Every structure is written in structure tokens, then in C-alpha cells.
Amino acid sequence: MDWQGQKHSEFLMQILLVVFAVVAFAVGYAIESFQMMILIYASGVLLTALITVPNWPFFNRHPLKWLDPSEADR
Amino acid sequence: MHSFGYRANAVVTFAVTILAVMCSLASLSDNFNVPTPTADVKVLNINWFQKQPNGNDEVSLTLNASADLSSMFTWNTKQVFVFVAAEYETPQNALNQVSLWDGIIPSKEHAKFWIHTTNKYRFIDQGSNLRGKDFNLTLHWHVMPKTGKMFADKIVMTGYHLPEEYR
């Protein structure tokens, strides 16, 4: 991942987890099912991990321009 | 967020922290519930009433207890532990409490119940004070949560009386 990608990944991770937590709590409270809250949240955590942890291409859209090896030697 | 492992750790840690917050909120939400339980306990019969060889009084009763505890169940309730205790005063102790019966209510559907039984646990005094004794029967309950704070309360029923003589 490039630097921009890392920033996006962290932001996405935080937003997704908080949103899933809020939705899970609201739904669980409304239908009076603790189990449903846990189920929604757990699937949210897995989805978030799937989106933000692996090094997907869309996290690499601002790649760093490294110097050529021959230039760096000088 | 420099590596796979770093990001994986960040997701897991943040997810667990948020889970802790959700569980605290779930426990706090129990405070919005105001239970309105009802209970009635009748002593149908004093089966026998004797002084044991060690000098302590013991009585065996048949109880008929009915209660509706469904209003104390919330989405965050795991089970309700309920017990019936006999309470009375003696010269040695200001308060004696003897548990006569207990049970676990696993869900709201089982919360409206009726039992007819002899006392599950022995009603033995520390001494010989039970003849002619007035006592209360108290229904205690503990609402055990899935997560967070446990609530406990009771209903006191008065007016019960033990025989003047052994039988």
C-alpha cells in the first residue's frame, strides 16, 4: 500500500466498524435480540477486515516514485 | 498501517474495544426497564414439626407459589434466579433467613409459573424458637444479564404462622 492508501484504509476501518456497531445495536435493541446484535456486528467486523486489511489495488493509486538504483548510488 | 499484520491487529483491537462499548450500553439499557412482578405464596400444610436430637427445630411445609416475573426480562437477560426464603426473628438473631426453594427461569416464556412442592431445602432453626412463630415468606429474584449489571429485588409476604406445639 502507498501512504494515501494506508490513510484511506485506516479511515475506512474506523468508519465501517463504528457504523456496523451502531446499526447492530439499534437493530438488536429494536427487535429485542442480543444475538442479532452480535451477529450483525460480527459480520461487520469480518467485512471490514476483508476490505481494509489486504493490499488491494485501489489502495495503491498514488504509488511512490522511487529513484532508479543507479541514481541512488551517486 | 504499514503491513498486513499491522492492519489486521488494528482491526481486531478496535473491533473488540467497540464490542466492549456495545456491551456496556446494552447493560445500561436495562435501567430503562421497570419490572412489575407479582407473586403469591401459600402454605398449604405443615407436614411435620419436630425438635431434632441436636436441639434444633425443624419444620416441613408444602408450599404453593405462583408468580409472574415476565416484566423483568429484557433483551439482555440470560436468566432469572428466584428463591423463596422464610424470615423471622429470634432472641439470638434479629433476622433469620432460611431458603426453602429456588429455581432458574431461563426465558420470558417460563416466567409466569406455578409450583406445588414441599420445601426443597430444610427449614431448620438455630435453636428451638419456632413454636408459635410468626414468619414472612419472601420471594427474592436475581435478574442475571447476558452482559453487565445484575439486578436483585424481592417481594415480602407476611402473615404466616407456625403451630404452637410440635406435631
TrEMBL record, chain A:
The chain crosses the membrane at residues 12-31, 38-59. GO terms for biological process: protein targeting to ER; signal peptide processing. The keyword Transmembrane helix applies. Keywords: Endoplasmic reticulum, Membrane, Transmembrane, Transmembrane helix. GO terms for cellular component: signal peptidase complex. Its main location: endoplasmic reticulum. It is found in: Endoplasmic reticulum membrane. It is a multi-pass membrane protein. It comes from the Eukaryota. Belongs to the SPCS1 family. Component of the signal peptidase complex (SPC) which catalyzes the cleavage of N-terminal signal sequences from nascent proteins as they are translocated into the lumen of the endoplasmic reticulum. Dispensable for SPC enzymatic activity. This is Signal peptidase complex subunit 1. It comes from Phoenix dactylifera. The gene is LOC120110657.
From TrEMBL, chain B:
Residues 1-26 form the signal peptide. This is Signal peptidase complex subunit 3. It is found in: Endoplasmic reticulum membrane. GO terms for biological process: protein targeting to ER; signal peptide processing. Belongs to the SPCS3 family. InterPro entries: SPC3. It comes from the Eukaryota. The keyword NAD does not apply. GO terms for cellular component: signal peptidase complex.
